[in-house]
Amino acid sequence: MRVSVLVLDGVFDTGLSVVLDTLAMANELSDADRRTRFDVVTCGVRRTVTTAQGFRVGIERAALRARPDLVIVPALGCKTPETIAAALDQGDVADACALVRSWSRSGAMIAGACTATFVLAASGILDGGRATTTWWLSPVLRSTSHA
Fold first, then answer.
1. H-helix segments, 41-146
2. What architecture (CATH level 2) is domain 2-143?
3. Does residue 103 carry a pLDDT above 90?
4. Distance CA 73, CA 95 (A)
5. What are the extents of the domains in the chain?
6. Close Cβ partners of 6 (under 8 Å, ≥ 6 residues apart)
7. Half-sphere exposure of 32 (CA within 13 A, CB side)
8. Angle at Cα 13 formed by Cα 111 and Cα 70, nearest 5°?
9. Alpha carbon distances (Å) from 114 to 30, 75, 122
10. Side-chain half-sphere exposure of 52, counting CA atoms within 13 A
11. Cβ neighbours for 96, distance < 8 A, ≥ 6 positions apart
């Protein structure tokens, strides 16, 4: 399965590492006679991202990759409605929303961890569907309309 971990500026450091560690562990623990279950690519709409803690992460350009089977967007390093609104106004988020819409329309499964659900909501792919986020931000998610 081709998995693209779509990383945006301001990604929650732990959120990114948990996603990558979980997929790596699944691959390491899979039956040795089978080929690697997850072909994981860390990608984004820019060449590098800066995490919420200020670490620079080199990533592959998502637009140059074949359509993934699964896209996982790790949490944004946002904790309040104000910081989420500011993050959603960033240029890379708008570009990521267009990419997520395109991948979703072409059949990719899309997942967002925690505050990344706001990116998915902004993309419009959650319209008419069900989603959840962290408990203290769920009222804000309910009011989020896509761009």
1. 81-88, 91-105, 117-123, 138-143
2. 3-Layer(aba) Sandwich (3.40)
3. yes
4. 13
5. 2-143
6. 43, 44, 62, 71, 72, 73, 96, 99, 100
7. 0
8. 20
9. 27, 5, 14
10. 16
11. 6, 8, 44, 45, 73, 119, 123
Residue 28 tokens read as: 């390491």
pLDDT of residue 143: 72
DSSP 8-state symbol, 11:
B
Q: How many CB atoms lie within 10 A of CB 145?
A: 8
pLDDT of residue 36: 63
Q: How far apart are CA 65 and CA 18, in angstroms?
A: 23
Lowest mean pLDDT of 17-21, 24-28, 32-36, 94-98, name the range: 32-36
Q: What average pLDDT is seen over the chain?
A: 89
Q: Is the pLDDT at 146 greater than 60, yes or no? A: no
Q: Note the pLDDT tens digit of each residue in 37-94.
A: 899 999 999 989 999 999 999 899 988 888 899 999 999 999 888 999 899 998 899 9
The Cα–Cα gap between 20 and 42 comes to 9
The residue type of 142 is R
Q: Which two tokens stand for residue 25?
A: 């562990």
Tokens for 116, please give them. Answer: 């990344």
